[in-house]
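Summary of Year 1 activities. Much of the first year was spent building the evaluation harness for sequence design. The harness presents a backbone, in tokenized form, and records the residue chosen at every position. We chose the following record to illustrate the format because it has been used consistently in internal testing since the harness was completed.
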């Protein structure tokens, strides 16, 4: 039986394509924008909106990588993971420790990126090894608890992590091959934008091939019926360990890029339970197990969280609707409620997500 939302979703495809073009447009060189845009309604200058979108595009790409990592564990393997923010933080703090002068390492960006990725993957395996027999709510509680343990450890190990002050400044990467000269990091973020875009494209290509591999099929078999998969000769324990390792590695990679972009680890609270929930919402909204769905869900939710919610708050203030800055009327303070409402509506009317995987689509058609 087809979902009643399917025809309207087809009509929304041009709008989704338009949103993607809008997000990519500000990153183009200024010389390519030869025409002037008029002012839009609601007191919002278009150029101001585009500049904000352009400044947040690397963050959107980075959090999309984080969501793709969670999709490996939750979407492919069917394991409920509520602690992905912890591995995001592990990658960020490892990058800070490995690159900031004053620590004994002082590595370059690329070595720190690789080490942070492998460090987060190792942490994922260490978490998965003793919890392989857990499923459902029990696994969710363990991963949630692990996330809180990591956050409090980052806060309390002040001699290593600087506590709530965060590690900074993280030196900029050497991207001369992308046109970034030393000392221009704060002036032109376009090379880092291209770096994040290339990273995202490479990860999508890697996951596409992994999805079609023997390991990817084993993950899907475990998600559908672990007992039947075991009877067919699949080593469920090894496949789960691999899922945690791959998902955690992508989270560590995203954390390393995040800290490099901000030039700071941003403090332990940047990797709390809310971060994990927002990323999980991106996966559920787009479609469990669907790479394209996770990308669309991440662009929508992270774009709203980082771009459109602050922009709407500015619109409300400029329109004198909230001249005193009442926090109750600010969209940024309602974002988690909005995300939760979106998830409830999706689970009620389209549980397979906005862009479900081909397996889900074929199963629904049958």
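For this record, the design step produced the sequence shown next.
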């Amino acid at each position: 039986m087809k979902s009643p939302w399917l025809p309207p979703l087809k009509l929304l495809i041009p709008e989704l394509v338009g949103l993607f073009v809008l997000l990519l447009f500000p990153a183009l060189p200024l010389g390519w924008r030869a025409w002037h845009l008029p002012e839009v309604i609601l007191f919002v200058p278009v150029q101001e909106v585009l500049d904000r979108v352009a400044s947040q595009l690397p963050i959107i790409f980075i959090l999309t990588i984080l969501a793709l990592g969670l999709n490996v564990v939750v979407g492919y393997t069917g394991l409920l993971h509520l602690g992905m923010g912890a591995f995001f933080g592990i990658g960020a703090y490892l990058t800070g420790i490995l690159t900031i002068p004053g620590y004994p390492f002082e590595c370059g960006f690329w070595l720190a990126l690789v080490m942070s990725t492998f460090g987060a993957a190792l942490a994922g395996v260490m978490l998965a090894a003793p919890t392989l027999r857990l499923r459902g709510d029990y696994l969710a509680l363990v991963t949630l608890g692990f996330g809180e343990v990591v956050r409090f450890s980052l806060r309390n190990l002040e001699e290593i992590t600087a506590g709530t002050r965060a590690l900074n400044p993280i030196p900029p990467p050497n991207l001369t091959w992308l046109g970034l000269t030393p000392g221009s990091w704060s002036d032109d973020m376009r090379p880092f934008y291209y770096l994040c875009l290339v990273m995202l494209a490479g990860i999508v290509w890697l996951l596409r091939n992994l999805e079609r591999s023997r390991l990817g099929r084993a993950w899907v078999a475990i998600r559908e019926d672990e007992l039947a998969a075991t009877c067919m000769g699949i080593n469920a324990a090894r496949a789960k360990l691999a899922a945690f390792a791959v998902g955690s590695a992508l989270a560590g990679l995203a954390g390393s890029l995040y800290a490099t972009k901000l030039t700071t680890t941003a403090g332990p609270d940047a990797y709390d339970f809310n971060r994990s929930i927002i990323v999980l919402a991106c996966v559920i909204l787009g479609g469990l197990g669907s790479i394209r769905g996770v990308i669309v869900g991440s662009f929508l939710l992270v774009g709203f969280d980082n771009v459109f919610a602050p922009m709407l708050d500015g619109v409300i203030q400029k329109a004198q609707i909230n001249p005193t800055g009442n926090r109750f009327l600010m969209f940024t303070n309602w974002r988690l409620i909005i995300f939760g409402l979106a998830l409830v509506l999706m689970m009620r009317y389209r549980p397979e997500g906005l862009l479900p995987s081909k397996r889900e689509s074929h199963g629904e058609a049958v």
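The first helix runs from residue 6 to 24. Quantitative recovery figures across the full test set are reported in Table 2.
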